[in-house]
Structure formats: C-alpha cells, structure tokens
Amino acid sequence: MNQLVARAVLRGLIGGRSCKRYVSPPSAAAAAVVRPFDEAVVMWRAQGLGQWRRAMSTAAEKATAVTEKDEKESTLAAATEKKKEGGEVMVASYWGISRPKITREDGTEWPWNCFMPWETYQSDLTIDLSKHHVPKTFLDKVAYRTVKILRIPTDIFFQRRYGCRAMMLETVAAVPGMVGGMLLHLRSLRKFEHSGGWVKALLEEAENERMHLMTMVELVKPKWYERLLVLTVQGVFFNAFFVLYLLSPKLAHRVVGYLEEEAIHSYTEYLKDIGSGKIENVAAPAIAIDYWRLPKDSTLKDVITVIRADEAHHRDVNHFASDVHYQGKELREAPAPIGYR
After folding, report:
1. Which of 88, 200, 256, 284 could pair with 318 as two cysteines, CB 3.0-4.6 Å apart?
2. Closest Cα partner for 338 from 222, 237, 208?
3. Which N-terminal residues, if any, form the signal peptide (predicted)?
4. Hey, how many other C-beta atoms are within 10 angstroms of the C-beta on 204?
5. How many CB atoms lie within 10 A of CB 16?
6. Closest Cα partner for 314 from 226, 232, 224, 204?
7. How many CB atoms are located within 10 Å of the residue 59 CB?
8. Three-class SS string for 129-187?
C-alpha cells in the first residue's frame, strides 16, 4: 500500500502536478513536521532528484538532533531536581563521573566524602609516648630552642583552653608534610628518580593531621578572631617552612619532630583536664568514630588518646628522616614508613 502511494506521488510530481492532490493538507499541529518535506519538494523540482534526497536527509538529521537535545536537557533537569535525603541535590555529570555506592561493614551507606572506608584504621596505642630526641648538634639545639620559643605565645594566648589550642596546633601541623612531600615530588621530577616512597609517606602525614583538624572543628567552634589567627599563622609558617626545607631538610624535619613532642605534651594535658572534670567528656564525633574505627559509645577522651598516638608516630617519622640526612644520605635511600601511624 505504501509503495502504491509513493508511486502515485512521484507520477504527480513528474507530471508537474501538486502533491496536495494525493496527500491531505497537514493540520496545524503537524505543520512543523510537513514543512521540511514541502521545502524539499520545491528544491527537487528546481535541481533534481539527487539534491531532493540530500535535502530530505538534512531535514531528518536536524529533526533528530533537536529531539536528542531536548531529551538530554530534560534528563539533566530531572537529575538536577532529584534530591537525596538531607536536601543534597544530585547533578548528572556530563563527564560520566559519579560516586559508586559505598557502604559500611554493617551495610549502611558511607556518609563521608573526605575519606573512604579503606583509608580508616585503628591507631596503635602501644607506642612509646616518652621518647625524646636529645639535642646534640648545633642544628638540633636550634630546632629545639625554636620550638620552645614558639610555645611561649601559644601558652599565653590559649592558656588551658586545650580544645582551641589543639585546633590551632593542627592547622600548623598539617603544613610540613604537604611542603616536604611537594618538594620531594618536584625533586623526583627534576632528577628523573624515585622518591623511595617518601612523597606518599609525607602526604599521608599531612592528610592525617588534616583529619585531626576536621575532628577538632566538630568539637570546638572557632571564633572569628581565631579564624583570623589561623590565616596569619598558616601564611607565615608555610612560607617559613618552605624556605627552611629548601635550605636544610634535616633541620626542617628536626623542627617537626620537636613540634610533635610538644603536641604529645599538649594532648596529655588535655586528657588530664578531661579526667579531672575541667573539660566535659562529651560523645565522640561521628567522623572520629568512622576514621579511627572507634566503638559507637566512644567519648572525647578516646578521640584525644588516638590523636596523641598519631602525633607520636609523626614524631618518630620526622626524627628518623632528620637522622637519615645527618648520615649524609637522601631520604630515597631509606625505607619510607608508609602506613606508619
């Protein structure tokens, strides 16, 4: 039947007749669809059957492109309007990037984007907290005295407000690992040599210190002037440590080692105030429970205990790195303590 109609239309066109004789006039709703066909017929009469076919093909491609565009826009709009629980808006990514479904061991959905379940761990609480590197060389004494001098304004400003002190401490403690890892990374690129795993080890340290800060922010809400102080201290310390690491990596690591010793002391005093009741032993934040794999009923005391253990591990890593440099070797010649925390 379709072939008979097509033949009749072609005969009418060849004979100079209007195709309207065989095809009923289009309705208003179908005008947009018929118009490309009418335009193609006029072109065919003027230029021949070959161009008529090309015109029909072009019209069909345009209609298909418009349809696909409309479908894509409607899909994107629908995905944008779709909301998760808690009011978060899910936006469809043009690049096909999406987060896979991640769950805890009990099957519940993983709530954090800043770290994944395979990055969590149980802190080693058996580490010796009393270790101390006795300064012997001139550079060791410079590092030790520098840290002791830096502690004076901290004690004056924060006194026994150990929550705020810890928050400030972590904004500084997260800088050395990032600076050291960055400079070792650039050195590895310049010299076409491996870093011995030290880039990863130092960046792990920086990330761990940052998670300390994210935990403390859940416990202590910084005031505006404390935020301003953080900006100032971080800006000064980052640039100073950057220059120091370029000039003397062994001195830089020794300074960090002594800073970590002071951190252990501060967290020990924090625990004393919690034990004496001066600081309320509140429930542990959810982020700390998941990051350190703590029991659900953990408290602030448990959180400070695992953070202090982390600081002891960072103390060991940085004193070890400084010792490697003192022996006249490069860090890549010594095994990197990856995962040592």
Report:
1. 256
2. 208
3. none
4. 21
5. 7
6. 204
7. 16
8. CCCCCCCCCHHHHHHHHHHHHHHHHHHHHHCCCHHHHHHHHHHHHHHHHHHHHHHHHHH
Residue 232 has which token pair? 């100032």
Residue with the two structure tokens 């880039």: 199
Tell me the C-alpha distance between 25 and 35, whole Å.
Answer: 11
Helix (H, G, I), strand (E, B) or coil at 336: coil
Token pair of 293, please?
A: 């794999």
Q: 341 near 208, Cβ under 8 Å?
A: yes
Q: Which DSSP category does 332 fall into?
A: G
**Where do we find the tokens 């004076």?**
152
Q: What 3-state DSSP class applies to 83?
A: strand
Residue 253 has a pLDDT of 97
d(CA 161, CA 151): 14
Residue 111 and residue 99 in contact, taking contact as beta carbons nearer than 8 Å = no
Q: Which residues of the chain have pLDDT under 50?
A: 9, 16-37, 40-44, 46, 49, 52, 55, 59, 63, 66, 79, 82-84, 86
pLDDT of 230: 85
Contacts of 332 by beta carbon, 8 Å cutoff, 6+ apart: 193, 194, 195, 196, 198
Nearest residue to 230 (alpha-carbon basis) of 172, 154, 186 = 172
C-alpha distances (whole Å) from 236 to each of 15, 140, 231, 249, 257 are 90, 22, 9, 18, 19
Class of domain 138-333: mainly alpha
CA distance linking residue 281 with residue 250, whole number of Å: 39
82-133 confidence digits (pLDDT tens) = 444 545 555 566 788 877 888 888 888 888 888 888 889 988 899 999 999 9
Residues of the chain with CATH 1.20.1260.140: 138-333
